[in-house]
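REVIEWER CHECKLIST
Item 1: Sequence provided? yes
Item 2: Single chain? yes
Item 3: Sequence as submitted:
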Amino acid sequence: MNIFFDANVQYVLAGCMLFGLASGVLGCFAFLRRRALLGDAIAHAALPGVCLAYLVTQNKHPAVFIVGAAVTGLAGSFAVNGISRWSRIKEDAAIGIVLSVFFGFGIMLLTYIQHQPFGNQSGLDKFLFGQAASLVGKDVQVFAILTFILLVGVVFFYKEFKVIAFDRTFAEVIGIPIGWMDAALTLLIVLVVTTGLQAVGVVLMAAMLITPAAAARQWTQRLATMLLLAGLFGALAGAAGAIASTLAPRMPTGPWIVIAVTAFFAVSIAFAPQRGMLARWWRHRQQSMRVNLENILRTLYRLREEEGDAAFSLDQIRRFRHLSVRQMLHFLGMLKRQGLVEPQAQPDRWRLTALGVTRAAELVRRHRLWEVYLSRYLHLDSHHVHADAEEMEHIITPEIEAELEHLLAHPRRDPHDQPIPVGSGGPR
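Item 4: Structure as written out by the authors:
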C-alpha cells in the first residue's frame, strides 16, 4: 500500500488520531457530568467564530480559525450557563436556544462571505461536515500542540475534575473552587471542539466528544482506566476513518470516523464483561436458573413436611411450580448433578438427599423469617407475605439472616404457624 507513504495521507492519519485522543479523554468528564449536549452547543456556536475570524483577517491559517471558534464557543457555553442559572429555563432548553441562534448566525455569515468580492469562501463551508482530507502539516502541528495542552490540563486538574464529576457537594466542602474548575473544564472542551471542527465538522462533533466516553464506560468502574480507553477508542476511530476515506476515494473522513467510533460503542455495549448486554443477559439467565432450582428444593421440602420423607412425582411438584415437564426434568437433572435430589425406582419420582434437605431447610428458614418480619414490623396480613418472602429468600445473605433472627427474637413459627427450621448453628 504505497498510498500510506504519501505525506498527505500521513498528515490526515496523524491529525485524526490526535483529535480522537483528545476528544475521547475530555468527553469523559462531559459524559460523567451529564453534559453531553454541551459539546454540541459549543460546536455549533463555534461556526460564527470561524466566519468572523476570516472576515477580520482574511487568512485561512488553522490557528486563526481555532482562535475565532474558541471565542464564540466560550461565548456559547457562558450563554448556556447564564440562561440556565439566571432564568427558569432548564439547561437542555438553554442548549437548544444557544445552538440554534449561534448556528443560524454562522450560516448567515457564511452566506454573506460568499457574496463578497473578496469572499473566496472555499473551505469555510467544510466546517459544517468537516474535511479531514484537507489537513496539511501546519494543521497537524496545531493539533499536536492543542492535544498536548489538553492532556496536560487533564493531568494537572485530574483530582479536582474527578471529585466534581462524582460529588459536587463534597468538592465544595473540601474547598475545591467549583466555579474555576467548571470554567477550566469548559475551556478545555471548547479547545477540543474547535480542534475537531476541521476533521468532523460542526454537525458530527458531539458524537466524537461523547461516544468514545460512553464506550469506555462499559468496560470499567475506574475513571483513570476510562480516560485511557476513551482516548484509545477515539484515536483508533480517527485512524480507521482516515484509512477508510483513503481506500474509498471521494468518501468524507468525518462520517467514517463517527461510524468507526460508533462501532466501538456497539461492541462495548454488547460485549463488555460487566455492563454489556450479553453479560447482563447471562447474569439474568443464571439468576433465573438459580431461583428455579431453589424454588424446586423448597417445594420438595414443603411436600416432605406434609407427607414425610417420601418421593414425589412431577405432577406433585408442578402443582407449586409453573414449569413444563421438560423444564422440570431439566432442573431436576441439574439438582441431581449437584447431589441435592435423587430419582427413585418409580418413574418420574424424586426425593431430597441429605445434602438437599440441609440446603432446602436453609431456604425455607430464610423464607419464613422474612414472613415473620413482614407480618410483625410491616403489619402485612399473613396471606399477603408469601409472595414477597419468596422473592427475598433468594437474596438474603447469612449476615442478614442472623440480623433478622436477632431482631425477631429467634421465632420458632411463621405467620402460618409453620415451624421455622433451625439454623446450621443448632438451637439457640
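Item 5: Key structural point noted by reviewer: Strands lie at 312-313, 341-343, 349-352.
Item 6: Recommendation: ____
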